[in-house]
Automatic annotation (TrEMBL):
It comes from Methanoculleus receptaculi. The lineage of its organism: Archaea, Methanobacteriati, Methanobacteriota, Stenosarchaea group, Methanomicrobia. The keyword Lyase applies. Belongs to the HPS/KGPDC family. HPS subfamily. InterPro entries: 3-hexulose-6-phosphate_synth, Aldolase_TIM, Bifunct_HPS/DMK_prd, HPS/KGPDC, OMPdeCOase_dom, RibuloseP-bd_barrel, RraA/RraA-like, RraA/RraA-like_sf. Its EC number is 4.1.2.43. It catalyses: D-ribulose 5-phosphate + formaldehyde = D-arabino-hex-3-ulose 6-phosphate. This is 3-hexulose-6-phosphate synthase. One of its GO terms (biological process) is L-ascorbic acid catabolic process.
């Protein structure tokens, strides 16, 4: 079996950062350097020229995502130093035919990207017949966020297309190894390399994995288990960033400091410190759930205290969120149980039985429905709509990875302003 090719996708905006990351990736064993579409849109053909000059021994891939004017765009990439140019497989046949002619004229190769193609197998055969050199089984990042898999697409193509197959879309060392075992000859990895604090080590892990491919049985996890695993790996700020600053509760704090709570919401509406329904909800909730209690926003009387917390802990609930006050704070802190509230007060209410369990509530400015996911830590509490929980978990992981790389560059001596290129990217008015 031929040695698989490792292509690193530089889906970045800043050319200087891209060059630095590319150098670290090459040191780790990357073969081809992809000038990602965001980098091309940000820096133009200068990015292709610069990377060609800096890495004369590596193939440069220009991810142009050509949709029209195939000959012109292939020509400009080829003359800038690209050896491989990417075209959208769903471009019109006339566009692809012209791109092929231009590629032959300028001595470069074409890679057809199957992103968003409705019938990928049929289209892969068609574009291979039109003369493209490689087929890219690519699932885009927004599609990955909702659960689509590049490996699933690869399995549909293997052995069915008369062209070498590349695979791209959320790959890490494990899935890259499985991709080679399934027939991919080119493995394209982006964020799991370029966002790593140690890019060289991350590249080396993928390099070793694809050089020793194996088919690994997929872990059987329930959807809720996957969502929980994702949210437990990120912070509340990561989650609200992934939601474009949505979902964060206002005015709520962690009673026990540095604790975390992740789980589906069991909602409770109560009034005037009536603690009957909050306590009854403990028996209804499942292990790993988060009780979310609306107390009319009152802070002078508490529907929750140490005894209820002890009961919730025994039932293995993940945490408590209260739009209102909590009491017995010293005992709760000694337990270290995740309780989030808007205030503390000694006053307890009465068990009158008013209110409802598992109904839609408003808590600290956020609508919360039964089953919505709660992610809470010392920074605050975020509500994630249940129908978007997997997607937001995946997006929050991408936010976390981005921050890991930025943190490493700051550790090396750059400032946040420099890494972010704030002056360049400030919104023009």
């Amino acid at each position: 079996m031929a040695t698989p090719t490792l292509q690193v996708a530089l889906d970045l905006l800043d050319l200087d950062r891209a060059v630095e990351i590319a150098a670290e990736a090459v040191q780790g064993g990357a073969d081809w350097i992809e000038v990602g579409t965001p980098l091309i849109k940000s820096e133009g053909m200068r990015a292709v020229r610069t990377l060609r000059e800096r890495f004369p021994n590596n193939e440069i891939v220009a991810d142009m995502k050509i949709a029209d004017t195939g000959a012109i765009e292939v020509e400009m990439a080829a003359k800038s130093g690209a050896g491989i140019v990417c075209i959208l497989a769903d471009a019109d046949d006339a566009v692809i035919a012209e791109a092929v002619r231009s590629a032959r004229k300028y001595g470069v190769r074409l890679m057809a990207d199957l992103i968003n193609v409705s019938d990928p197998l049929a289209r892969a055969r068609e574009v291979a017949g039109l003369g493209v050199d490689y087929i890219n089984a690519h699932v885009g990042i927004d599609q990955q966020m909702i659960g689509r898999s590049s490996l699933d697409l690869l399995h549909r193509l293997t052995g069915e297309v008369n062209a070498p197959i590349a695979v791209a879309g959320g790959l890490d060392a494990g899935t890259a190894s499985a991709a080679v075992a399934a027939g991919a000859t080119i493995v394209i990895v982006g964020s799991n390399i370029i966002k790593a604090a140690d890019v060289t080590a991350a590249t080396r892990r993928v390099r070793e994995a694809i050089d020793h491919p194996e088919i690994r049985p997929r872990e059987k996890e329930s959807p809720d288990a996957v969502i929980r695993r994702l949210f437990e790996a990120v912070s509340a700020p990561n989650v609200t960033d992934a939601m474009h600053r949505k979902g964060a509760m206002a005015g709520i704090i962690s009673i026990c400091g540095r604790v975390r709570a992740v789980g589906p919401a069991v909602t409770v509406r109560t009034v005037s410190g009536d603690w009957a329904k909050p306590v009854e909800a403990i028996d209804i909730a499942r292990p790993g759930d988060v009780l979310v209690i609306s107390n009319d926003g009152r802070k002078d009387i508490s529907p929750w205290g140490e005894l209820a917390t002890h009961s919730a802990k025994n039932r293995r609930l993940a945490g408590i969120v209260i739009d209102g006050a909590v009491r017995d704070v010293d005992d709760i802190r000694e337990m270290g149980f995740p309780v989030f509230a808007t205030a503390t007060v000694p006053n307890a209410g009465e068990p009158l039985g008013l209110g409802e369990i598992n109904t839609e509530i408003l808590c600290c400015g956020q609508e919360v429905r039964p089953g919505d996911w709660i992610v809470a830590d010392e920074s605050g509490v975020v509500v994630v709509p249940r129908e978007r929980a997997y997607e937001i978990g995946r997006r929050a992981m991408e936010v976390r990875k981005t921050e890991e790389r930025i943190r490493e560059e700051i550790r090396r001596g750059r400032t946040l302003s420099e890494v972010s290129e704030l002056l360049k990217w400030e919104k023009r008015r």
